[in-house]
Write a structure and sequence with these properties.
single chain, Hypothetical Protein Ychn, Chain: A, 5-stranded parallel β-sheet, 5 strands, DsrE/DsrF-like family protein, Sulphur_relay_DsrE/F-like
Length: about 110
């Protein structure tokens, strides 16, 4: 079986710890899985530098999980790129990223 690819939708700050723990469980249990967490709206707040789950974010990034924030959200909320660790990626539109990943056959997860 080819390992699945999973895109995880994060749009609420309060769900960040749950999402990160779900992703850790996923990569711990499913060998070779590819995971991308895509955050927009309130979800970007949970990926900022200095959060209580910064160590888990860094661990996941070091294990190959892509953590992505939405440029449209950053612009609309006046959040500078510098508010995020260097391993956080940026896409122009989180919604477009989610749609494209699903069209590519990625599994969609929204905790």
């Amino acid at each position: 079986m080819t390992p699945p690819k999973v895109v995880v939708h994060l749009d609420e700050r309060e769900k960040t710890p749950l999402v990160l723990k779900n992703v850790k469980n996923l990569i711990d249990e499913l060998e070779g899985v590819e995971v991308e967490v895509v955050a927009h709206a309130g979800g970007v707040e949970g990926l900022r530098t200095g959060t209580s789950h910064a160590a888990l974010m860094e661990e996941l990034a070091n294990r190959g999980v892509r953590l992505i924030v939405c440029e449209n959200t950053l612009r609309s909320r006046g959040i500078p790129r510098g508010d995020f660790p260097g391993y956080i990626g940026i896409v122009p539109s989180a919604i477009v990223e989610l749609v494209v990943r699903q069209a590519e056959g990625w599994c969609y997860l929204r905790p």
